[in-house]
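Sequence in, structure out.
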Amino acid sequence: QVRLVESGGGLVQTGGSLRLSCAASGRTLRSANMGWLRQAPGKEREFVAAITWSSGSTTYADSVKGRFTISRDNAKNTVYLQMNSLKPEDTAVYYCAADTSFRQYPVVRQILYDYWGQGTQVTVSS
């Protein structure tokens, strides 16, 4: 069993930055593909970024490419999402998720994640 806890959300102005953290307990994340997804009010949850467990390969949604960076610190059992140049349309609840099936590619499809955090709110004011 894996428990994921996100932190680092908050209110920021357009153009600002935030760093989200996702700490895991109950099991090491060293062998888990990790992802960040978000859900804006009135919209479906969407993929943001993912990183593999093996090579650290990453992939991003087009809407955040060049502005967001996903990274992981296996020693701390933590995954991060550095968000720069934030826009009002980035406002959402951000979730981290873990895929423990040893896939060799970053996971984009939400259905492939088997553990989820409770989410952290990010609000970008215009």
